[in-house]
Amino acid sequence: MRILLIEDERELRELLEYGLSRLNYKVTAAANANDALIMVEETVPDLILLDLMLPGLQGLQFLDIIRRKNQAVPVIIISARTGEDDIIKGLEHGADDYLPKPFSMRLLEAKINASFRRAGRGQQADSEKISSGGVTVDPESRRATSGDEVLQLTQKEFDLLSLFLRRPQKVFTRNQLLNIIWGYEVELVSRTVDAHVAMLRKKLGPRGSNIKTLPKIGYLWADDG
Length: 225
Ligand code: CA
Fold this sequence. Notes:
CATH class of the largest domain: Alpha Beta
Radius of gyration: 19 Å
Mean pLDDT: 88
CATH superfamily of the largest domain: Response regulator
Order of helices and strands: EHEHEHEHEHEEEEHEHHEE
Bound molecules: calcium ion
Number of strands: 12
CATH topology of the largest domain: Rossmann fold
């Protein structure tokens, strides 16, 4: 697995390079995002670790360029900016995860593994059945089950549940859910999302608690229960 690390602080960069290579990742490091763009042109890595505050091109600008090029490479932001607004912004620019500095190698490793797992699932054909936490959706028949029980879901609820199951542990902000599930054509308030999630939770019964609320941020599916 090839990881591209973008970090301008030399000490941290070297520490992470060393730590990650010990975990058997092939690490390429860049001290700024301009160099990193050239590197990505040459070879798209399997994962990018991205610092936000960089000399020259900023982390979020880099992320925008990558996502505009339609590159689905998982990106984990590593940043000393730990405010809720910064985290939401990062996720909305297309980051897969956000790791506030300072962090342990152990936590970084867990985040990297979770990202790889999600990326792997993302490659599943859209028609394949997906299961997580006792809940299964079958996109072909548009049938969803919770244990043995067949769920009676509306189209939007089904889409919402499918999205959650495809990307367990991935945080979705309300805006992202609105964009993905409802598209841009409808003007909706984020309460629409809340209302649909509330209904979906209710229909899932005890497994409804798999949908976790991140206050003020959004939702995620936890496959632990
Ligand atoms: Ca920095």
